[in-house]
Design goal:
Elements (H helix, E strand, L loop, with lengths): L8 E4 L22 E5 L3 E5 L6 H7 L2 H6 L10 E8 L5 E8 L4 E6 L20 E6 L18 H14 L5 E6 L1 H12 L4 E7 L6 H8 L8 H9 L9 H9 L4 H16 L8 H4 L5 H16 L9 H4 L9 E6 L7 H10 L4 E5 L9 H20 L2
Parallel strand pairs: 1-11, 6-7, 6-8, 8-9, 9-10, 10-11
Antiparallel strand pairs: 1-3, 2-3, 4-5, 5-7
Helix pairs in contact: 3-4, 6-8, 7-10, 8-10
Length: about 400
Amino acid sequence: MRSLYMPNSTFLSSQPLFSPPFSSPSPSPSPSLPQFTVSGKKSFALRAQYIDYKSLRDSMESGKENLELNRNLYPIIDFYSSGFLKVSDLHSIYWEQSGNPIGHPVVFLHGGPGGGTSPNNRRFFDPDFYRIILFDQRGAGKSTPHACLEENTTWDLIDDIEKLREHLKIPEWQVFGGSWGSTLALAYSQSHPDKVTGLVLRGIFLLRKKEIDWFYEGGASAIYPDAWEPFRDLIPENERGCFVDAYSKRLNSDDLETQYAAARAWTKWEMMTAHLLPNEENIKKGDDDKFSLAFARIENHYFLNKGFFPSDSYLLDNVDKIRHINTTIVQGRYDVCCPMMSAWDIHKVWPEADFKVVSDAGHSANEPGIAEELVIANEKLKNLIKNGP
């Protein structure tokens, strides 16, 4: 039986050292009477206390604890082990471990799909507490074969995550994912809820038609017309009825230069819109043919196939399978790549999850306010594991 609850969301500015206070729960909260607390000049909080989780809320949501939590990215560290895991006759995935070899395991699911991992991804986690596992999904990063679309579906990736968990002899782990990584984290945890100790999700992407249409069929061009036009102009006018289809033809062309040209245009469009303020280092990724080819080909392949989900609302429809998992959702208010409508939709069907809206951020996990909230989310789960509810 579901516990009684009220909406649970927080709207945040990324001003330094901001930490909203939380009111104490009333003895008998009513779903029809939301509790409001006002904090700071730019922010307000809408908070709930769940009857079944009183001790958890006392542990995780006290204002004093928030002030004491680390909110800064951890220093760059090296990995202590790495390797390749053969997950099919065709594919091998690259994996690495860093942090504490006997710490609490957490797996990082990168975006794209096709984006691959980087050393900076380790910095969201306390290396003294967490055993940090990064891996490149099929065809991405160091995994082989590069940019390969064969045997490359969401369900293949979910199987790979399980194979990696078993290979590393991990009974269960925390799951962290942003953008496409949030899609995969939701799909994996819904398939294997007994293997997930906690979830941290960023930039929610449910891979629904309206999300694809927004970003790839002209919606986002209203905000970034200068970035959109080079993406649009690569495609002849008579093929602009569906840009995902038109790019698929070019990304799968027999001519490698045609593939590269399409990959550069596709990747630059996303990189130019991923930050609230332009990030030149990110935009330059579009000039890297190797990165762009995997990023664009694999993204396009998944989007053309609707994420390989059986229905448009599949991830929303299966939230009940993971409702019990301690979860934080972090969303940039001005995220153009994965607009807030998707985070809001999942918040409405899953109000038990903490919902953090960063009021001065776009899409990237590296934006200051988003990075801060991601670190805090991991710190809260760390303290919950260390101290218990």
